[in-house]
Design goal:
heterodimer, A: about 220 residues, alpha+beta, 2 domains, 4-stranded mixed beta sheet, about 10% strand, B: about 220 residues, 4 strands, globular, Thioredoxin-like_sf (chain A), Omega/Tau-like (chain A), glutathione transferase (chain A)
Chain lengths: ~220, ~220
C-alpha cells in the first residue's frame, strides 16, 4: 500500500459513482480518508465549497485540490498512480473504453431508476425493456472476454461493477432476473466480485435495496 | 500515409463534427471528409456507429470511433504535436470537467431557452445565463481555457457562443453579452479570430437558415 497521499473522498455509501472511485483507489493500493455525506439530511459545507456547480458526490480531494465527476476522477487516479494501469496502452482501445464508459454513464443508472423508483405499470415495463436492451448491448461489448478490459480487470470494469449492486433492487421491484436475460453480465459480475478490491469497496446489494425502499417512501411510493 | 488512413464522416452544420475538424486542423492532419445526409443515413455510417448512428465518426486505419470528446482525446494521444490536453493530471481533469459541463449543463439549458415560450422561456434563459457565467470560472483570468494558446476545452466548447449568436439573431434574445459576461465574451472573440478556427466554421448565412429550420422543428415539437 502506498502511504496516504492526503487523499480524501467525499462519498455516500450506496452511490455507485462513489463506488467506482473506491474500487479504483483500492486497485492502486492508495490509502484515503472517507467522509460520508448525508445527502438526505444536508450536504456539508465542504462538499458545497469543493463542488459548487453540481453539489454532488463523489469529490476526490488530493493534496487539497478537488477532482469532480466519477469517470473523470477514475481517469485522474489512473494517471496519478500509474502502476497497475486501468486504461489499456493502445490509443484505440483507450478510446473504446471511454466510449463504453460514456454509454454506461448515459444509460444505466437513469434507466434503472425508472424501474426501482416507479409506481409500476406501463412506465416500469418500458424501463425494464430499455434496461435489458442496454445490458444486452454491454454483453455484446464484453463478447467472450472475461472482463471489458480483456484478460484483466480494467477501466470499464471499474466504471460498471458498482452499478450491479443496484440490480437486486431493480429485480425485486421489477419482477425479473438479470441472469435470465443477460447471463454473460451475471457471470462477469460474479467474476469481478472474486476480487477483494471490489468486495471491500462496494456495498451489499441488500443495503442498496433497503436504501431504495426508504427512498421510495420519501417519494410517496 | 496519414492522408490515406484518416477519414471524418460528418455533417456541415454539426458542432461535434466541428470540434473534430478543429482538432485535426490544429494537429495538421490530412484527412478525407465525407458529408453525410442525416435524413438518409448511409450504410457506412450505420456500420461504423451502430450504437448511436450519429456523426462525427473518425475512421483511422480502418478503425471507427464515435463521440466527439473521446475522438478529441484519441487524436491528442495519437498525434503528439500541438498537444490539446495539458500535461498535469489535475489540469487534465479540469479540462475534461469543463468540456463535459458544457455538454451536460449548458447545451440543454440553452436549447430550452430558445425553444420554449412565455414564462418557461424566461426561467430557462436565466438558468442558461447562470451556466454560461460559470464558464468564466474555468477561464480564471487566462486568455483561453488552454492558457496563452487554445487547447482541449477551447475547441470542445468554442462552437457554443457562435451558435448562441446565430440563435440570438433569430429569436431576438440575448444570452451572452459583454456586460454580464465580459471574460467569456473576450474569450469568444479571441477564439474566433484565430485563422485556423475561422477556416473550419460553416458559413454564417447558411448556418442561420439551417438553424431557423431546426428551431421551427424544436418549437413545434415542444408546443402542446
Amino acid at each position: 500500500m502506498s502511504k496516504a497521499n492526503n487523499v480524501i473522498l467525499f462519498g455516500f455509501g450506496v452511490s455507485p459513482f462513489c463506488g467506482r472511485v473506491k474500487v479504483a483507489l483500492a486497485e492502486k493500493g492508495v490509502s484515503y480518508e472517507e467522509r460520508e455525506e448525508d445527502l438526505c439530511g444536508g450536504k456539508s459545507e465542504q462538499l458545497l465549497k469543493y463542488n459548487p456547480i453540481y453539489q454532488k458526490v463523489p469529490v476526490l480531494l488530493h493534496d487539497g485540490k478537488p477532482v469532480l465527476e466519477s469517470s473523470i476522477i477514475v481517469t485522474y487516479i489512473d494517471e496519478v498512480w500509474p502502476s497497475n494501469p486501468l486504461l489499456p496502452n493502445c490509443a484505440y482501445e483507450r478510446a473504446k473504453a471511454r466510449f463504453w464508459t460514456d454509454y454506461i454513464d448515459k444509460k444505466v443508472f437513469d434507466t434503472a431508476r425508472g424501474i426501482w423508483l416507479s409506481k409500476g405499470g406501463e412506465e416500469q415495463e418500458v424501463a425494464k425493456k430499455d434496461f435489458i436492451e442496454i445490458l444486452k448491448q454491454l454483453e455484446e461489448a464484453l463478447g467472450e472476454k472475461d472482463f471489458f478490459g480483456g484478460d484483466s480487470f480494467g477501466y470499464v470494469d471499474v466504471i460498471a461493477i458498482p452499478l450491479t449492486t443496484w440490480f437486486s433492487a431493480c429485480e425485486k421491484f421489477g419482477g425479473f432476473k438479470v441472469e435470465d436475460h443477460c447471463p454473460k453480465i451475471s457471470a462477469w459480475t460474479k467474476r469481478c466480485f472474486q476480487r477483494p478490491t471490489v468486495v471491500k469497496s462496494l456495498p451489499d446489494p441488500e443495503n442498496v435495496y433497503q436504501f431504495t425502499i426508504q427512498f421510495r417512501k420519501m417519494h410517496g411510493l | 500515409m496519414d492522408g490515406d488512413s484518416v477519414k471524418l464522416i460528418g455533417f456541415w452544420a454539426s458542432p461535434p463534427v466541428l470540434r473534430v475538424k478543429w482538432a485535426l486542423a490544429l494537429k495538421g492532419i490530412e484527412y478525407q471528409y465525407v458529408e453525410e445526409d442525416l435524413s438518409n443515413k448511409s450504410d457506412m455510417l450505420l456500420n461504423y456507429n451502430p450504437v448511436y448512428k450519429k456523426v462525427p465518426v473518425l475512421v483511422h486505419q480502418g478503425k471507427p470511433l464515435a463521440e466527439s470528446l473521446l475522438i478529441l482525446e484519441y487524436i491528442d494521444e495519437t498525434w503528439k504535436q500541438n498537444p490539446l490536453l495539458p500535461h498535469s493530471p489535475y489540469e487534465r481533469a479540469h479540462a475534461r470537467f469543463w468540456s463535459k459541463f458544457v455538454d451536460d449543463k449548458c447545451v440543454p439549458t440553452v436549447i430550452a431557452a430558445f425553444s420554449k415560450g412565455g414564462e418557461e422561456q424566461q426561467k430557462a434563459a436565466e438558468e442558461a445565463r447562470e451556466n454560461l457565467k460559470m464558464l468564466e470560472v474555468g477561464l480564471e483570468g487566462k486568455r483561453f481555457f488552454g492558457g496563452d494558446k487554445i487547447g482541449f476545452v477551447d475547441i470542445a466548447i468554442g462552437w457554443l457562443p457562435y451558435w448562441i449568436g446565430i440563435v440570438e439573431e433569430i429569436v431576438g434574445m440575448n444570452l451572452i453579452d459583454a456586460d454580464s459576461m465580459p471574460k467569456l465574451n473576450s474569450w469568444f472573440h479571441a477564439f474566433l479570430d484565430i485563422p485556423i478556427i475561422k477556416e473550419c466554421m460553416p458559413p454564417h448565412d447558411k448556418l442561420l437558415n439551417h438553424t431557423k429550420a431546426f428551431l421551427q422543428v424544436l418549437t413545434s415539437s415542444s408546443s402542446p
